[in-house]
Design goal:
Blueprint lengths: L1 H5 L7 H10 L4 H46 L7 H47 L1
Amino acid sequence: MASSSCSLSITPTPVLDEIIALSGETEIPKVMKILFEQQIVEENAFTKYIRYKVVDVKASLRRVRTSIREMERKSDKDSWTDAIVCFKETKVRLELKLSRLTQLEDEDFDGIKELKVHSVIMDLCEED
């Protein structure tokens, strides 16, 4: 069953036309493998970007936490109350941002694994 769907030719569409023009391939497994490989490269670049953003947010969180601690240690803490409240709100927002970025990074990692599996399936189709 898999071999019959793997050996079919592709019906061109705008995206497939571009891949076919660039690669010269017209068989479904080869074209799809190229598409999956391209998506993997793009997803890896996006994951790298997310990781840099996670590092940035963690650094910001460290600075905010340090600022809060320093302000709370002041002898005239009452004069720093508004600033402390603002920094605590910023801390909450940064923690939420970090949580969302981490979740996005995990989802992207799972997506890359899925694309790699699809690419292997296309390899198996080529062998049929």
